[in-house]
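REQUEST
  id: r-88c1
  op: predict_structure
  target: AAA+ ATPase domain-containing protein
  payload:
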Amino acid sequence: MRKVSQISAVLRLALSSSKRSRHTNVCRSYCTPPNPTPSGPLTSYSKLVEQGRLQHDPYQEKVASAFQNLFGRLEHFEKEMEDYHVRLEEWEKKREEERRRLMVEEAEKKEEDGVWASMNKQGQKLLGRWVLGRRQMNVEPGVGKWVSYLNRERKLDSIVGSRPAIPSAPKGLYIYGNVGCGKTMLMDMFYSSTDGMIRHRQRFHFHEAMLKINEQMHKYWKENGEEKSSQYSVSSWIMNLPVDERVKEWIAGEEFYKQQLQMKHILPAVADKFLVDQQSIKKGASILCFDEIQTVDVFAIVALSGIMSRLLNTGTVLVATSNRAPRELNQDGMQKEIFDKFISKLEKHCEIISIGSEVDYRRVAAKNSVEHVHYLWPLNNAVMEEFEKMWRQVTDQYGGEITSATLPVMFGRTVDVPESCKGVARFTFEYLCGRPVGAADYIAVAKNYHTIFISEIPAMSMEIRDKARRFITLVDELYNHHCCLVSSAETPIDELFQGTAEGTLFDLESFQFETETEDSRLRRDVLAEGSISAAGSPSSIVKMLSGEEEMFAFARAASRLIEMQTPLYLEGVRFLHPYFHQPK
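RESPONSE
  id: r-88c1
  status: 200
  body:
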């Protein structure tokens, strides 16, 4: 084991107070900072091979070439989508104007025909009562409202014309292969090269994407759901109409009905805001880079199907990585009909490429670099003393004041940080993985702390299956946010996970919000949209996580832990971690 003074040199390399880097792409350290004239992922890959930073691999080169072809089409596609959104905005504006005009004409005709002649004498007060949410609107009941809505939509089609056609999008890529073969690396090279070219783009790991879907659903429900509807206020354009109050009442009721219809299709509504850069007024093409796509439960299948289908139908270019081919994602056949439709659409819009390499390049890089100076084992007195020295050294570097903190998570939840110091935090394994927490908590920690100390990591078997699954999720998020991890453990990395002979791991991370009323209801709404019973979800999750699935997860976590010890990874911390991009 290295001396503390030698270890600190590596830490200073990763943690030097360098807030000079301002680019915020989520990518590994082999992705050079974006430049005004990006050369593309194949050029970046070739340069890294020439520099000796990467070992040439024909499988990786094939995928890099596919990314280069996609990259070459994006600039023209961006311009096409910019023009399309201008036409779409004009079409939507004209359609809304005509829709309002038709509703006023329809309401006035009903009044002329005496439709409301039998209305109560106090009918003129109903509008005000409805505004306060105390009385249901006097609108056509049942099928009548639906027929009225459809007839109005048909008239609008004939008056305004059909929706502008979306330009044909370049085919995205779905890359699958073994752990450490370079899937994420190549996707990140592609994502980095599109900076400045594509305005609306996002890169998510599976956990982060599912949490964003939950968050957006929650927000949409709060803004448009039943609670809001019960206190719905009539739009100002209706209140300002120079017409009878009964006409206003009918129009407001039709607007309310339209809103109810939209609430029944929450996933398309969420998808429409999923990738939009709220800071950019101008609209254009959109790219979604999705790392480690998987289908762990019924909710994931329904939500991903609804969100992805909408994005692909509206011109989004999808790039995804996975350990499995698309048709092998759902081996237990959960919600087969919905899954098959989703996969058929994915295959239509993406080129499916396998990286056939059996080499785990993270391990290759680790063998050619320094010892695992941040992963200390076994759990004896010498290691514990070394761990404490490293903690004191790093915190002294940042002023030495140790404080506790509370981080916001989601839906009003928080996570407590017992010990922290200016971007550095310390936990025990039991504190992070022995309690019912999940990806949302780990993302909050990973975003706020560039260096994480975790002590007393045990060897994990099926006897502590829930803790093992949480630890795997934790490693995923620390890696995705490019954190520096310092840890003390019972065994070497390759012996940390003790196999799957005793049964399957139960993925508690998938249930991290099940105790939250808001999210439980949102999950039920989404399942209902897909005509699915939520009651069967837990058993489906247990069945889904077979021994083979766990071996993938174990191998990925071990591979990432090894890479996180290398100088190449540590060099990227100061450039890539969100902490170093916060406003001063």
